[in-house]
């Protein structure tokens, strides 16, 4: 079945609607983590109605972060918080509808989003796929979509879910279930770097919208297996950034490298981590591991060739925010690893989104590395907003290159 689906002629992206939704539906969030995906969607205009996350440390970080974000930016209303700490495998659709909307019937219009745990599909993980303890949660997520029947859904996962053959076969079988349930489905691997995030981070995104809704909005019929109909986000300023620009290689540690010409500031680590006076004033700005090795003074700026002790270059993008056993990159110009706030900035998390002091450093770096870059999530959210309503983002809530609120 998956092979037959791949042979269908792709469509051109649908960009000219004949009718639009007047209001955005609220969102239910599964596997919410520290809330980076939800924050990006919130900044695109969505309201988070109900969230589920099992890990108590992630729950603490999520609620503290959104609370500080609302307080610092003087937003009205109640910040999103984790409504449910149950295992999604034990939480049925009727209970979810009742807790989120006070309903048990399939009547409320809403979207469903989430990033199921991905280590079992990761190239660098155990590669157990759908048989792994975490891998099977992707199937559970698909089951909940079919049971809850949201107007649209968004699934985020690692590239390995579609690039590795055995995982791809599993994925296409699950997508077929969703198409049988009445959804038009599209998927794309996006690199955060190509959308203005200073990080080389590829993630798989899967969007599904009820075919009846697509027909209503665009007067087009999406057949099962057809792809490329969704207008995925793109930014010509950064497209193909990894090979498009002349990136510096390495510089001796302690030297002052020459800034290359023509590389957008948004893609450079330096503007985010070099102003130590500013960072020290920010939440989580001074939280970091104490340096203990002479290697911190020996490794060249930009040398990320080894398995550990990878040093960033101030005039280059970062590799994935965390690697290995959630190890933290070395600061470009200082003999230490990045602080929590510096890592959050590379993930384009706003400076007003603070992590709680009670969490250990290891937990803070783990949840930071696991999250979706907020700016990448916002771009995905904007694409869904435009598809459903024809509107762009609200004026407030834009991210600048330092992850701070625009004045």
Would you give an account of this structure?
- There is one protein chain.
- Helix content is 31%, strand content 9%.
- By secondary structure, it is of the alpha/beta class.
- It has a domain at 2-238 and 373-389: Vaccinia Virus protein VP39 (Rossmann fold, 3-Layer(aba) Sandwich), CATH 3.40.50.150.
- The protein has a 6-stranded mixed beta sheet with strand order 2-1-3-4-6-5, sandwiched between helices.
- It starts with a helix and ends in an 18-residue tail after the last helix.
Counting DSSP H or I runs of 4 or more residues, the number of helices is 14
Question: Helix proportion of residues, in percent?
Answer: 25-40%
What's the overall average pLDDT, rounded? 89
Strand content: 5-15%
Following the backbone from N to C, one meets helices and strands in this order, namely HEHEHHEHEHHEEHHHHHHH
Under CATH, the topology of the domain at 2-238 and 373-389 can be stated as Rossmann fold
CATH homologous superfamily of the domain at 2-238 and 373-389, by name? Answer: Vaccinia Virus protein VP39
List its traits.
disordered N terminus; Rossmann fold; alpha/beta; 6-stranded mixed β-sheet; disordered C terminus; 407 residues; 6 strands
Secondary-structure blueprint:
Elements: H1 2-6, E1 27-30, H2 36-43, E2 48-51, H3 56-72, H4 93-101, E3 111-114, H5 136-148, E4 152-158, H6 160-163, H7 165-180, E5 183-191, E6 202-210, H8 211-218, H9 241-244, H10 270-273, H11 276-280, H12 340-346, H13 361-370, H14 374-389
Parallel strand pairs: 1-2, 1-3, 3-4
Antiparallel strand pairs: 4-6, 5-6
């Amino acid at each position: 079945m998956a092979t037959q689906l791949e042979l269908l002629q792709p469509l051109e992206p649908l960009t000219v609607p004949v009718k639009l939704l007047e209001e955005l539906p609220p969102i239910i969030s599964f596997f919410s983590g520290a809330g980076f995906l939800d924050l990006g969607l919130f900044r695109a205009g969505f309201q988070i109605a109900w969230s589920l996350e099992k890990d108590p440390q992630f729950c603490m970080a999520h609620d503290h972060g959104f609370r500080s974000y609302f307080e610092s930016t003087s937003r009205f209303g109640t910040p999103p918080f984790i409504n449910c700490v149950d295992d999604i495998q034990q939480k049925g659709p009727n209970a979810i509808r009742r807790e989120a909307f006070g309903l048990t019937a399939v009547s409320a219009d809403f979207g469903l989003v989430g990033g199921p745990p991905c280590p079992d599909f990761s190239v660098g993980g155990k590669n157990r796929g759908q048989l792994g303890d975490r891998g099977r949660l992707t199937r559970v997520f698909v089951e909940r979509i079919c049971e809850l029947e949201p107007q649209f859904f968004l699934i985020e996962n690692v590239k390995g879910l579609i690039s590795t053959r055995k995982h791809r076969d599993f994925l296409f079988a699950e997508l077929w279930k969703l198409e049988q349930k009445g959804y038009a489905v599209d998927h794309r691997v996006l690199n955060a770097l190509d959308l203005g995030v200073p990080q080389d981070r590829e993630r798989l995104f899967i969007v599904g919208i009820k075919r009846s809704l697509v027909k209503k909005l665009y007067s087009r019929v999406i057949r099962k297996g057809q792809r490329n109909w969704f207008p995925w986000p793109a930014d010509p300023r950064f497209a193909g950034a990894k090979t498009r620009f002349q990136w510096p290689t390495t510089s001796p540690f302690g030297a002052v490298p020459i800034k290359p010409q023509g590389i957008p500031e948004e893609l450079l680590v330096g503007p985010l981590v070099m102003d130590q006076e500013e960072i020290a004033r920010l939440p989580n700005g001074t939280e970091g591991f104490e340096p203990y090795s002479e290697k911190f003074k020996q490794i060249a700026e930009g040398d990320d060739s080894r398995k550990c002790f990878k040093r960033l270059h101030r005039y280059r993008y970062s590799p994935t925010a965390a690697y290995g056993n959630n190890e933290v990159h070395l600061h470009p110009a200082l003999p230490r690893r990045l602080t929590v706030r510096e890592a959050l900035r590379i993930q384009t998390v706003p400076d007003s989104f603070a992590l709680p002091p009670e969490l250990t450093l290891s937990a803070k770096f783990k949840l930071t590395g696991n999250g979706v870059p907020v700016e990448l999530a916002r771009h995905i959210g904007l694409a869904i907003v435009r598809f459903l309503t024809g509107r762009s983002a609200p004026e407030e809530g834009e991210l600048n290159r330092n992850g701070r609120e625009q004045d």
